[in-house]
Amino acid sequence: MKLLGASSLLFGTALLLNDLTAVNALKLFHRRKDFSDEAVLRRRATMSSDLDNHGDSQYYTNITLNGQSFSVLIDTGSSDLAVGSDVPGASSSGKTASVDYAIGEVKGPIELATLEFEGFSVQNQAFIRDTTGDQKTGEGIIGLGPSSSSVVQDTLGASTGNPPLDRIFLQNTSTPNYLSVYLGRSNDPTDPFPGDLTIGSLISGYENVTSQPKLSVTVVKSTNSQHWGSLLDANGIIGPDGVAINTTSKVAGTSKNTNQLRVIFDTGFTFPQVPTAVADAIYSRVPNATFKNITGNIGGVWTIPCTVELNVTFKFANVSFPIHPLDTSLSQFNEVDELGNPICLGAFQPIQQPSSTYDAILGMAFLRNAYMLINFGDFVNGLTDKVADPYIQLLPTTTDLAEAHNDFVTERLDGIDDTGSFHLLPASVQSDPTETQSGSETFADKIHPYIPYIIAGSVAAGVILLVAIGFCIRSGRKRRYQRLHEPAPVGLHHQEPPFSQYQPSRRY
Ligand SMILES: *[C@@H]1O[C@H](CO)[C@@H](O)[C@H](O)[C@H]1NC(C)=O
Ligand SMILES: *[C@@H]1O[C@H](CO)[C@@H](O)[C@H](O)[C@H]1NC(C)=O
Ligand SMILES: *[C@@H]1O[C@H](CO)[C@@H](O)[C@H](O)[C@H]1NC(C)=O
Ligand SMILES: *[C@@H]1O[C@H](CO)[C@@H](O)[C@H](O)[C@H]1NC(C)=O
Ligand SMILES: *[C@@H]1O[C@H](CO)[C@@H](O)[C@H](O)[C@H]1NC(C)=O
Ligand SMILES: *[C@@H]1O[C@H](CO)[C@@H](O)[C@H](O)[C@H]1NC(C)=O
Ligand SMILES: *[C@@H]1O[C@H](CO)[C@@H](O)[C@H](O)[C@H]1NC(C)=O
Ligand SMILES: *[C@@H]1O[C@H](CO)[C@@H](O)[C@H](O)[C@H]1NC(C)=O
Asked: C-alpha 351: how far from its chain's center?
């Protein structure tokens, strides 16, 4: 099957899911529970959920266009709205556009319709009616990135072509210029909240985000490369041994301190992408850790036993963001080792497509640990007055470390806490199987055609397969472990590297 668009892609995934439903393999480390609404309410008394969490791999929200509903992937890594099926009564702009994502693309006529999104109504909102089939009927993607990276705006010009958030902020300048996102964790035994997204208001209980340090948005000179990103503290990642990992930025002119990584925040990217040395420092000292190229196009990731709890912390402006151990390694992908034992994937993946404008992409597994506010400041196209520079505020959400630890024991260890007997291998014998291959862009170039096809999500956007994988996880009471030497499931095969045609124009 040639996977050039998500129609085939989704079709393929549908086959995969059917395949998976053959076997019930919900193992002890990934027991699913039904959480009562009460439990949700107890914890998040006033939070409403505007997001649907598809297996921690994609987060969707509902919008309407001329009254027609669409479930759209929220993507702070891209800046255009696209939907996969017809909008009744939409008017044509007479132009077409295409947007290339890390995975897949959308392409088709630009149309205009009335958008309802988060309680806001926008007339004549421009959007792409995807005709590649990448977006399913009733689905789509909403780019929440800076409008300077919008293809539709490039094509139609400012104002008419403005992306949704710019339209919302401009049509009522009393609406505060910010977006906030909270991503929930699907297998969290104590916080089963899917997530929320707000525009111009805060999630109640989390108002404190506004008193967090304001992280300046790093401004990128080249057109279409602007993202919501900032600088991590110097050596600002604390590894599982409690020691800061040495980090060196490869981005030219990042800051005076080259130990500060330049990161971008991307709600559309499943596996956070980090420098190879960082991924190695986190995972390579775990006994039985192996670095694998996962069939099914996940790409090169560390795998570790699912029972190993790893505590990692990121630091921004001296504020610590502990990562929940259920986010450091992911059980959702049903991988097994040679003996058939379940293994988990290291969520912090060596960056598969190094960029000249950032060192790391802090995607979902990071963002589940930080409530993020993005203040657009002057980045709204068409503002007549100088407002202020854009900034990002992050509020740590994994603050009860004992609870996080207990969550891990419940989910992965069947309630029996034997983590006390765990020891990392000494740093000196640390094996580094990725070093020779992936230390440079050569490795990335090599694996490049195969990469994050399923998993990596997108800098620019849509990780379409994951919807279905997530769907599988949510609804799936049945799946199986797939051995690495087995052929990829039907539909995940692709004879052609998916990036062969997208790559050159991929927008970051
Ligand atoms: C989105 O709409 C679908 C279909 O009406 C509904 O099942 C789902 O709960 C909605 N999701 C959210 C987050 O409101
Ligand atoms: C504009 O936004 C302000 C603040 O959110 C709100 O009070 C007001 O009703 C809005 N005006 C219109 C015309 O929607
Ligand atoms: C909010 O900030 C105040 C002052 O810093 C602090 O006392 C309070 O505990 C914080 N609340 C939450 C929910 O973090
Ligand atoms: C990290 O950098 C410090 C200072 O340059 C150095 O002393 C230390 O050995 C480095 N650690 C590792 C693990 O490379
Ligand atoms: C590592 O693998 C060996 C043999 O494959 C096994 O006996 C041992 O229990 C594993 N260790 C961990 C921590 O999983
Ligand atoms: C962090 O704290 C140290 C000492 O308290 C201070 O020197 C440094 O400037 C702070 N860094 C940031 C990014 O705020
Ligand atoms: C991880 O952190 C928790 C909370 O501080 C702690 O109880 C647990 O022992 C830590 N686990 C490891 C393996 O370091
Ligand atoms: C990863 O696996 C795919 C599928 O088996 C293969 O085509 C590709 O060459 C592998 N990449 C590397 C770097 O080994």
From this structure: 13
